[in-house]
């Protein structure tokens, strides 16, 4: 084939595992190396907060308010087409939502590659190692199964947040993921810090091959599992996995007290497993990017790009949006 194909990487991993942390590092690396990266960012919430962390000059396409793996087929292909046509990047990172099953995305990118000059080179999955370990020892519910799928599809696996695990636990997580995926290269990381040569190396071969084989295997497995389904539409089986996940987006009318907000977050019901936002506090001068992932809370000073409202997104399973909303309204009115 005469023309060069644009490398596509899919960044997968559960909510809050460290995908954006990796994305910003990878973008810096490729930009410094004289290559032009572009991003397709998918968010369950209605606002793209992670996009705030990516330099303004990086072309970005946003798919908001839902998970690409569930939204109408074609959205992702349209975003790829637009970036390829308008920006001619050297590589494209697709950051999926933390609840996405990467198989659907792999499928859509490989379909798109029949029509546009793009090539899926690798699926990179970032694993919240402490969370995976705890789930493996306790509940093993839907989240655990989704993490398993995300791990199975990967060519490169980052076992992240190892700073939060004792040395003795590392081997246990390592053994678990290698059992699910003996093909991927596996790396322990802190703040998704990885040797970028490993990602460079993925731009060489056709790493998508493993992913495609995995798609086939999983589809076969899934169709067997859902054999009795009446609504058995092509490759949409996994909807069952996260139809229960929901997001509430709160736009603040006024600044809230930082301590009261922190206390509110620490008391969120356990069904809310991810939250993030951009906030102005009544008792601080700066604005903050706030993160809450698997019980860890983090506030970073930020000067948002463009006009960004004070907003927070809460993601979880079957929680009362109304309860979250009224608690936040109370915080706001306490500051009237
Ligand atoms: N302690 C610790 N925190 C980390 C590490 N990596 C990332 N974090 C923090 O975890 C939070 C979530 O990180 P992100 O990179 O935004 O995670 P994500 O996977 O992009 O999240 P979603 O897009 O919501 O799915 C942030 O507060 C990070 O600073 C790590 O290795 N150790």
UniProtKB/TrEMBL annotation:
Residues 245-332 form the CobW C-terminal domain. InterPro entries: CobW-likC_sf (IPR036627), CobW-like_C (IPR011629), CobW/HypB/UreG_nucleotide-bd (IPR003495), P-loop_NTPase (IPR027417), Zinc-reg_GTPase_activator (IPR051316). It catalyses: GTP + H2O = GDP + phosphate + H(+). Transmembrane segments: none annotated. Keywords: Chaperone, Hydrolase, Nucleotide-binding. One of its GO terms (molecular function) is nucleotide binding. Belongs to the SIMIBI class G3E GTPase family. ZNG1 subfamily. This is GTP-binding protein. The lineage of its organism: Bacteria, Bacillati, Bacillota, Bacilli, Bacillales.
């Amino acid at each position: 084939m005469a023309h060069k194909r644009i490398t596509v990487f899919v960044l997968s991993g559960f909510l809050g595992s460290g995908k954006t942390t990796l994305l910003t590092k990878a973008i810096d690396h490729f930009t410094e190396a004289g290559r032009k990266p572009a991003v397709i960012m998918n968010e369950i919430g209605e606002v793209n907060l992670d996009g705030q962390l990516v330099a303004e000059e990086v072309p970005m396409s946003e798919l908001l308010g839902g998970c690409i793996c569930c939204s109408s087929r074609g959205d992702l292909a349209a975003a790829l087409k637009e970036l390829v046509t308008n920006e001619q990047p050297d590589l494209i990172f697709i950051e999926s939502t933390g609840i996405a099953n990467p198989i659907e995305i792999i499928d859509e990118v490989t379909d798109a590659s029949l029509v546009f000059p793009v090539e899926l080179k690798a699926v990179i999955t970032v694993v919240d190692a402490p969370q995976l370990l705890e789930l493996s020892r306790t509940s093993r519910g839907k989240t655990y199964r989704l993490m398993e799928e995300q791990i199975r599809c990967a060519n490169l696996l980052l076992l992240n947040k190892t700073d939060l695990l004792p040395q003795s636990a590392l081997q246990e997580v390592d053994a678990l993921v290698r059992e699910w995926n003996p093909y991927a290269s596996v790396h322990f990381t802190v703040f998704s810090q990885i040797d970028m040569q490993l990602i460079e190396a993925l731009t060489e071969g056709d790493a998508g091959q493993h992913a495609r084989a995995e798609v086939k295997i999983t589809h076969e497995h899934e169709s067997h599992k859902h054999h009795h389904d009446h609504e058995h539409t092509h490759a949409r089986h996994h909807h069952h996995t996260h139809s229960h996940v929901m997001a509430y987006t709160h736009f603040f009318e006024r600044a809230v007290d930082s301590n009261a907000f922190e206390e509110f977050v620490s008391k969120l019901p356990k069904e809310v497993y991810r939250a993030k936002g951009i906030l102005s506090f009544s008792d601080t001068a700066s604005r903050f990017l706030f993160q809450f992932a698997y019980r860890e809370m983090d506030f970073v000073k930020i000067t948002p790009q463009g006009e960004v409202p004070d907003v927070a997104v809460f993601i979880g399973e079957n929680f009362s949006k109304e309860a979250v909303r009224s608690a936040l309204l109370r915080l706001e009115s306490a500051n009237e």
